Amino acid sequence: MTASPDLGTVQLASPDLLRSTFRRHAAGVAVITACGDSGPVGFTATSLTSVSAEPPIVSFGIGTGASSWPAIAETDHIGVHILGEHQSELAATFARSGADRFGAPTAWREGPEGVPVLHGVLAWLVCRITGRVPAGDHRIVLAEVVLGDHSGTGRPLLYHQGRFNGLRD
Protein backbone atom coordinates (compact mmCIF):
# COMPACT_ATOMS: atom_id res chain seq x y z
CA MET A 1 0.00 0.00 0.00
CA THR A 2 1.35 3.44 -0.89
CA ALA A 3 0.98 6.46 1.32
CA SER A 4 -1.26 9.22 0.09
CA PRO A 5 0.38 12.51 -0.86
CA ASP A 6 0.87 15.14 1.83
CA LEU A 7 -1.69 17.74 0.81
CA GLY A 8 -0.02 20.22 3.16
CA THR A 9 2.77 20.71 0.58
CA VAL A 10 0.48 21.44 -2.38
CA GLN A 11 1.51 24.51 -4.40
CA LEU A 12 -0.37 26.56 -6.96
CA ALA A 13 0.83 26.26 -10.54
CA SER A 14 3.97 28.30 -11.23
CA PRO A 15 7.12 28.10 -13.34
CA ASP A 16 9.02 27.01 -10.21
CA LEU A 17 6.58 24.16 -9.49
CA LEU A 18 6.91 22.92 -13.08
CA ARG A 19 10.74 23.15 -13.04
CA SER A 20 10.96 21.44 -9.64
CA THR A 21 8.65 18.64 -10.73
CA PHE A 22 10.47 17.99 -14.01
CA ARG A 23 13.87 17.90 -12.28
CA ARG A 24 12.58 14.58 -10.91
CA HIS A 25 11.81 13.32 -14.43
CA ALA A 26 14.73 11.71 -16.25
CA ALA A 27 14.80 12.63 -19.94
CA GLY A 28 16.91 11.66 -22.90
CA VAL A 29 19.19 14.37 -24.28
CA ALA A 30 19.13 15.52 -27.89
CA VAL A 31 20.66 18.40 -29.81
CA ILE A 32 18.53 20.08 -32.47
CA THR A 33 20.43 21.83 -35.28
CA ALA A 34 19.50 23.98 -38.26
CA CYS A 35 21.11 26.25 -40.80
CA GLY A 36 20.37 29.90 -40.05
CA ASP A 37 20.98 33.07 -42.05
CA SER A 38 24.32 33.60 -40.29
CA GLY A 39 25.41 29.99 -40.07
CA PRO A 40 24.55 26.89 -38.08
CA VAL A 41 22.43 27.06 -34.92
CA GLY A 42 21.57 24.45 -32.34
CA PHE A 43 20.35 23.82 -28.82
CA THR A 44 20.08 21.02 -26.27
CA ALA A 45 16.58 19.58 -25.93
CA THR A 46 15.12 17.19 -23.40
CA SER A 47 11.61 17.54 -24.85
CA LEU A 48 12.13 15.33 -27.92
CA THR A 49 9.20 12.97 -28.47
CA SER A 50 8.28 10.37 -31.06
CA VAL A 51 4.80 11.40 -32.23
CA SER A 52 3.92 9.04 -35.06
CA ALA A 53 5.44 6.01 -36.78
CA GLU A 54 3.41 6.34 -39.99
CA PRO A 55 4.42 8.82 -41.17
CA PRO A 56 7.48 9.11 -38.90
CA ILE A 57 7.05 12.39 -36.98
CA VAL A 58 8.91 13.81 -33.96
CA SER A 59 8.28 16.89 -31.84
CA PHE A 60 10.27 19.13 -29.51
CA GLY A 61 9.75 22.38 -27.67
CA ILE A 62 11.75 25.58 -28.09
CA GLY A 63 11.39 28.91 -26.29
CA THR A 64 10.59 31.88 -28.50
CA GLY A 65 13.33 33.80 -26.70
CA ALA A 66 15.99 31.19 -27.51
CA SER A 67 18.85 32.28 -29.77
CA SER A 68 18.05 29.38 -32.12
CA TRP A 69 14.36 30.23 -32.44
CA PRO A 70 14.63 32.70 -35.37
CA ALA A 71 16.35 30.02 -37.51
CA ILE A 72 13.96 27.26 -36.40
CA ALA A 73 11.03 29.60 -37.13
CA GLU A 74 12.17 30.08 -40.74
CA THR A 75 13.91 26.87 -41.81
CA ASP A 76 12.33 23.91 -43.59
CA HIS A 77 14.68 21.23 -42.20
CA ILE A 78 16.29 20.44 -38.85
CA GLY A 79 18.69 17.87 -37.49
CA VAL A 80 17.90 15.75 -34.43
CA HIS A 81 20.86 14.15 -32.62
CA ILE A 82 20.55 11.60 -29.82
CA LEU A 83 23.54 12.05 -27.51
CA GLY A 84 25.55 9.31 -25.85
CA GLU A 85 26.67 9.33 -22.21
CA HIS A 86 30.16 10.34 -23.40
CA GLN A 87 28.76 13.65 -24.72
CA SER A 88 27.81 15.57 -21.57
CA GLU A 89 30.22 18.39 -22.51
CA LEU A 90 28.62 18.66 -25.96
CA ALA A 91 25.17 18.81 -24.32
CA ALA A 92 26.41 21.52 -21.94
CA THR A 93 27.89 23.53 -24.82
CA PHE A 94 24.63 23.50 -26.76
CA ALA A 95 22.70 24.38 -23.57
CA ARG A 96 24.94 27.34 -22.65
CA SER A 97 23.81 30.79 -23.73
CA GLY A 98 26.40 32.64 -25.79
CA ALA A 99 28.61 29.57 -26.38
CA ASP A 100 30.37 29.00 -29.70
CA ARG A 101 28.39 25.81 -30.26
CA PHE A 102 29.93 24.84 -33.59
CA GLY A 103 33.52 25.86 -32.82
CA ALA A 104 36.20 23.45 -31.62
CA PRO A 105 35.92 20.91 -30.10
CA THR A 106 32.46 20.32 -31.68
CA ALA A 107 32.87 18.00 -34.67
CA TRP A 108 30.22 18.34 -37.36
CA ARG A 109 29.62 18.53 -41.09
CA GLU A 110 27.00 19.91 -43.41
CA GLY A 111 24.52 17.12 -44.01
CA PRO A 112 21.50 16.58 -46.22
CA GLU A 113 19.32 19.65 -46.82
CA GLY A 114 22.20 21.77 -45.45
CA VAL A 115 21.48 20.63 -41.89
CA PRO A 116 24.49 20.55 -39.52
CA VAL A 117 25.11 16.90 -38.52
CA LEU A 118 27.10 16.27 -35.33
CA HIS A 119 29.76 13.54 -35.21
CA GLY A 120 29.86 10.71 -32.68
CA VAL A 121 26.17 10.71 -31.70
CA LEU A 122 24.14 7.57 -31.07
CA ALA A 123 21.70 8.44 -33.85
CA TRP A 124 20.73 11.39 -36.01
CA LEU A 125 17.77 12.36 -38.18
CA VAL A 126 17.13 15.02 -40.77
CA CYS A 127 13.52 16.13 -40.56
CA ARG A 128 11.21 18.44 -42.53
CA ILE A 129 9.27 20.82 -40.31
CA THR A 130 5.52 20.38 -40.75
CA GLY A 131 4.20 22.58 -37.95
CA ARG A 132 5.03 25.10 -35.22
CA VAL A 133 2.32 25.14 -32.55
CA PRO A 134 2.15 28.03 -30.04
CA ALA A 135 2.41 26.80 -26.42
CA GLY A 136 2.87 29.63 -23.92
CA ASP A 137 6.36 31.11 -24.27
CA HIS A 138 7.40 28.13 -26.43
CA ARG A 139 6.57 26.55 -29.75
CA ILE A 140 6.05 22.82 -30.21
CA VAL A 141 7.76 21.94 -33.47
CA LEU A 142 6.47 18.96 -35.46
CA ALA A 143 8.88 17.48 -37.98
CA GLU A 144 8.61 14.54 -40.37
CA VAL A 145 11.69 12.31 -40.60
CA VAL A 146 13.34 12.41 -44.04
CA LEU A 147 16.40 10.23 -43.36
CA GLY A 148 18.85 9.33 -40.63
CA ASP A 149 21.44 7.00 -39.17
CA HIS A 150 21.05 5.00 -35.95
CA SER A 151 24.35 3.11 -36.13
CA GLY A 152 26.17 4.94 -33.30
CA THR A 153 27.21 2.85 -30.34
CA GLY A 154 27.06 3.40 -26.62
CA ARG A 155 24.54 4.26 -23.97
CA PRO A 156 22.26 7.32 -23.92
CA LEU A 157 22.87 10.55 -22.07
CA LEU A 158 20.12 11.50 -19.59
CA TYR A 159 19.16 14.74 -17.88
CA HIS A 160 17.99 14.45 -14.27
CA GLN A 161 18.05 16.74 -11.21
CA GLY A 162 19.65 19.53 -13.27
CA ARG A 163 22.62 17.40 -14.41
CA PHE A 164 23.64 15.24 -17.35
CA ASN A 165 24.02 11.60 -16.32
CA GLY A 166 24.70 8.20 -17.82
CA LEU A 167 22.19 5.38 -17.71
CA ARG A 168 22.72 3.02 -14.78
CA ASP A 169 21.68 -0.62 -14.67
TrEMBL record:
Signal peptide: none annotated. Coiled coil: none annotated. It holds the Pfam family Flavin_Reduct. Residues 22-166 form the Flavin reductase like domain. The keyword Glycoprotein does not apply. Gene3D superfamilies: Electron Transport, Fmn-binding Protein, Chain A. It comes from the Bacteria. Keywords: Oxidoreductase. GO terms for biological process: pyrimidine nucleobase catabolic process. GO terms for molecular function: FMN binding; riboflavin reductase (NADPH) activity. This is Flavin-dependent reductase. It comes from Streptomyces roseochromogenus subsp. oscitans DS 12.976.
